[in-house]
Here is the input.
Amino acid sequence: MSTEQHDADAYGQEPARISHHQHEATAARLTVFQALAAVGIGHEQADDIVSKLEAGTMAGAHTRISESNAPHGSEPRFENGWFAGVLNVANYPLCIADTTATAQRGRAAASALLVSQLQQPASPAPASPTVALDAQDALAAAQRCTWALTAPDKFLVPAPHEGTMAAI
Here is the structure.
């Protein structure tokens, strides 16, 4: 276990950083697919090229994790546990690399379709009929997915009195 003080805000920033990197990767992947299509590379070959690049990235993550060392001056038993844990954790990116290299199909075609949709001039939207929202239906739907609407300690469950809600 680390002797460093845990920064309580560090995890709060991780989801934002992850989201940023995923957004950037999606935009970069789209650009790569467009560039490959522009030079005549078909969708299947483009998927194969990008999948291999992504698998290589995951293999690089495996290597970087595998090369980490126990804190300087650690006892031999701690070092042995450290290395066993590192090898266990490093196995996950390697497994992801194995499947990414072969399983990422159809993304180039989907990207091309998305680009063509985005490049079309906006057509006037047909007037859509107004749909009446039934409050009971909305409440029932919200109750089925409270996990997406509130913190885990505030889930809503039916209260003993019909028609009211209580937090657990």
Remarks:
- The beta strands are 156-158, 165-167.
- The mean pLDDT is 76.
